[in-house]
Description:
The structure holds two protein chains of two kinds.
Chain A: E1 2-10, E2 20-22, E3 33-41, E4 73-74, E5 83-84, E6 97-107, E7 116-126, E8 129-130, E9 134-144, E10 147-148, E11 152-162, E12 165-166, E13 170-184, E14 188-191, E15 194-202, E16 206-209, E17 212-216, E18 220-226, E19 237-240, E20 259-260, E21 265-274, E22 284-290, E23 293-302, E24 309-318, E25 323-330, E26 338-347
Parallel strand pairs in A: 4-5, 6-7, 7-9, 8-10, 9-11, 11-13, 12-13, 13-14, 13-15, 14-16, 15-17
Antiparallel strand pairs in A: 1-2, 1-3, 18-26, 19-25, 20-25, 21-24, 21-26, 22-23, 22-25
Chain B: E1 4-10, E2 48-57, E3 66-73, E4 79-80, E5 85-88, E6 93-102, H1 110-115, E7 118-125, E8 133-141, E9 150-155, E10 162-163, E11 168-170, E12 187-188, E13 193-203, E14 210-218, E15 227-235, E16 244-248, E17 253-255, E18 260-269, E19 274-284
Antiparallel strand pairs in B: 1-8, 2-6, 2-8, 3-4, 3-5, 3-7, 9-19, 10-19, 11-18, 12-18, 13-16, 13-17, 13-19, 14-15, 14-18
Amino acid sequence: VVEVFEISKSDDGLTFSPFETFAFGDVLDLANYVKFRVTLYGDFDTDDYRLRGFSGIADDATLVEGGFGLSPFGRFPFGDGGVCLEDENTDLPQGLLSLSGSLQVLVDQPNITGDLALSGDLEAVFSATLAGSLALSGDLDVEVFVQEEGALNLSGSLQVLVSPPVSGSMSLSGDLTAEIVMLESGSLALSGDDQVSVFLQESGSMSMSGNLASVLSNAFAILGGFGPSANVGSGQTIYISPTPDMQTVNLTTEAAAAVKIPIAITISSIYVVLTGTLGSGVTLTFKYVVNGTPSSGIVLTMNTASGTSASASGTVSLAAGDTLSIQIVSSGNALVGVQSCLGQYQAA
Amino acid sequence: MASFLFMSTSSKNNRGQHQVFNSLTASTGGAGDSNDGTGGMCITPFDVLLKNISRNLQVAPGGLATCNHRIKKNQSSPVNLTGIQTISGSDTSVTNDVEATVPALDTTSNTTILQTVNFMTEWTTNAPAIGNAFYAFEYQVQGVGHSRVSFYHIGSDFGGSKTISPTQFMPPMGSASQSTTQSLRKVMWPVSGNFQYIAIAWKNLTAGTTAALTLERSTTLAGATATSLGPFSMSAASPTGNWQGTIDTSSTLAISAGEFVNWKIERTAGTGTSIQLMVCLGFNP
């Protein structure tokens, strides 16, 4: 026995398209007017007569967006197959959304104001603004890019990348392989057999337990580079740039060496190699210069005893839009230049 | 993703191509778009998202003059990745919050390498005052597991070459000038971690010549190499003017803050003495 299901569509109710077959489970775009047709044929006995039909509800005040039945149509049909209107409603529920089972989930709605709870075998991507709490559990492969103002609770066998600013609390537990890049002003709790990298500005509390292989740090990298510069003259004040080639012409005007920094950073060290050893009684003093003013946050003074390399640490902070250069002041005729000048910085 | 700064300097006096990512400090330069293929370039082992591109000049262009630049990819058929940044008149800086993804090097063939080379272009109008340009922009390495890696570049430009015999040494970034004395090309590394994620592209090796590139770590400026990464072997292509490339994302070289690092390049067979080379070195703190 064969069942054939067909649909014909029309925009004006007068001229209809030829009937086309469809199968249960198909999702179809409808027109203003639709006709459905079912045909059964085959060699069957009287007792075998059966028909799966359509049961749609239209023009109903309360169910205009939905239908139900064996083969319904409507915006949110359920049952054995269905025919759907194209979903034009992009708002997620305002309340609690709970999903479970073997899920592949993409959440990219602009706003979720309620709580979201997912469990099961999940492959999920969240790129939404989520004001409520997010709770995930199970065998998860999850990327979360959210503005999370509520609590984020993850548990289970997790592979997680979290890169939002998180202002609420965050709790991860289970067998985690996680990379968390966030600005965390709340608490962070990790436990279990975890391999976790956390790059965060952590102003709240943080607790970790279990068999953890974790790295905690802001992202940081190296500024400065390799010259070498020309020899620094007697009593000379020169400037080099924090660029890979350092602008090695021994600039005497700070503005000529200054680089405008587009993001906020914190510098924490300076490492200098000279092209030779300074003569007796001669010093070279290195300072970072922010917006034209030498900073005393990191000061490196080299002399004969320093040999050809030395370093210093401290803190120099820059806001986005500040300028940065490196000042070198000689107390005498140095007779050497700067071979390399590098420092560590972190994006604030 | 973690954010890093990339800072570079144009030494072309407000004109011509320059050494984007500082992979090349001996650019032959040029006067603008028509010379896209002859100026600075860079390669990366991963896609890199560029953001917040800031450019400032030592000297304002003055009058009706302008200094312009943009970032492109694909040497053989340039594709603009960013809009044009213009500094004009009495202005000395411009910052654009644009986003552009420079692609990872595709080493499949000469054609794919050319398609995944990235570069900046500079040009001017109405004869601006002479001065250098500085660039600083945020970049984010794409992909889970790579977001902490920062990159450092060295090499030659489209028209330039590096010496392979006698054995030469180079710093990991900055000046492209080589030296036969290792200590003169060492830098003191300021962060403990591992060098990893290396992209290399080369061409113009004489037929029958092979070369090797090795990253060397030492504990003192004058001391001998203690550990190394590589060598990365490079052979001549056919024709020799075709690009070849390699990417190593698994090998590592550990270093502690205060130790020293340099590149070594040497001829391992044949009679050739030079190579055209781009190197991108990743560092995973």
